Amino acid sequence: MTSVADDHAAADAAAKKRQSMLPAWLVKSQELLASVEISSARARASISRLDSELSRFDDVAAADAPAPAPAAAAAPPRERTTNGPHLLPEELGARVATYMSVPAIVVLSACCQELRRWFETDLPWLGEYERRRLAGCWWIGLPTDDDDDDDDDDEDRPYRRAAVLHISFLNLKAAAFVEHAALVASNAGGSQGRRKAHGLLEALVDVTAAELRAIDDSPTDAARAVVKSGGLAALASLAGSESRQLGGLAAAAVANCLAHPDVGDEACAVLEGCGGRCALTSCLTSPSAKVALHTSLTDAQKAILYRVSLEDADAGDLGVVADATSQSCQGAASKAAARALCNWCAVPEGAPTVAAPADAAAVRRRRADAAALAGTLAAVAAWELRAYRSDSGELKVASYLTLALDGATGRVSGAGQDERGKFDVVGARHDASMVAFACHYHEFGTSTVGHFAYVLWAGNDAREGLFGIWEVASHDSHFALRSGGPCRCLPADAWG
């Protein structure tokens, strides 16, 4: 029998024999893994000893540390002063607030609760509100249900605080455009640049329109800054932009700058030098531009067509049917450019100019615009209509005529005479503040060629009359202006 030692020796010999059968690289790898495991065990033992030593050190340090000092008593809160204009008598407090800037009022309102409540009323803002005549600026402040400026009820007017803060905010945006006008114009080719330019231009248009309502403290600050800083060249460049909405805002800003008496003459000279007339003319749309309406004819209109077949209908009846199936197509850019060119022609002639806010705000005034158009046409018995050349601004023809608007049917009729002969006016109202008509000259007979076609918008009142676009009529309907330009229709005794 073999002993146990002999068995172990045989087993070790067999293990070595098997190990020797493994590849050398595998044997080496097993040895490396074994050494790594031994090193890891030693490292864990060292870390454990270090933790115990650190724990004993913390115990010794805590035992030797001095007692903490008592916490200092908290300082009592400082009482804010309650002195301010709200403690003055009502009229005196309002006068003090008048001489304070809007940022100062906002900062002061954060001082105490009494001041904040006082500033939330309309009293501190009364002086600035009246000085800027913001009651007449219906596009400034919060929209109201009733836009009638003749109503004395304060509830129908914008809140004074909202109006003053709004005009101050718009002034900041207008100043930003004046400072970076060239950069805004150069970046308007991209979508992000157009969005930024749109907000700045809209603020500039609203501010320059509101400046004419002010009564003191240099009411033409924004318009003067635009003209002096070279901003008109940037506006002329933006007016020719591919974006018609952006071009319309730029043209509206130019029109408002031309309307200011302090800088109108200088603005005309600057625009002439930077090619502003060509840029504005490119925005004009032909008065014959129309879009088809998908609507059914009424029985009365069908009766007119029957009379046409019997050759028993006049030109006015035919106009009613034509207006029922089509709509004159004039965009905001065409309207703003026509107003700018009319103001340009009106400055040297001493005629009234027209300043207006952006069309985005004018949507709130559609009902009032319709009433203004009807009131303007009804208030004036005789008109003088002057048509200007688009390339030079020279007078093309001056016509004397009468205009009447039928409120029930929207038809525009009248008669007149100029150097070309006598004519009849046939047209219709196509928008809240716009009429489109043609002057049919008697000597041309029934031909549709050679007559003058017009599209006119109403100004702010009868004194400002109408402004628009004229063109020599042709057989076809087209959108681009061919042979025409801006025109202005004022009461016969209003021309300078």
Per DSSP E runs of 2 or more residues, the count of β-strands stands at 11
Q: What percentage of the residues does DSSP assign to strands (E)? A: 5-15%
| Oligomerization status of the protein chains | single chain
Radius of gyration over alpha carbons? Answer: 41 Å
Average of the residue pLDDT scores: 77
CATH architecture of the domain at 285-289 and 329-491: Beta Barrel
Low-confidence stretches are 145-156
CATH superfamily annotation of the domain at 285-289 and 329-491: Quinohemoprotein amine dehydrogenase alpha subunit, domain 2
Structural class: alpha+beta
Shape: elongated
Tell me the series of helices and strands, N- to C-terminal: HHHHHHHHHHHHHHEHHEHHHEEEEEEEEE
Assign a percent range to the helix content. Answer: 40-55%
CATH topology tier name of the domain at 285-289 and 329-491: Lipocalin
The largest pleated sheet is described as: 8 strands, antiparallel, barrel
- The rounded distance between the terminal residues' Cα atoms is 145 Å
User: What top-tier CATH class of the domain at 285-289 and 329-491 fits best?
Assistant: Mainly Beta
Number of helices: 19
Strand order of the largest sheet: 3-4-6-7-8-9-10-11
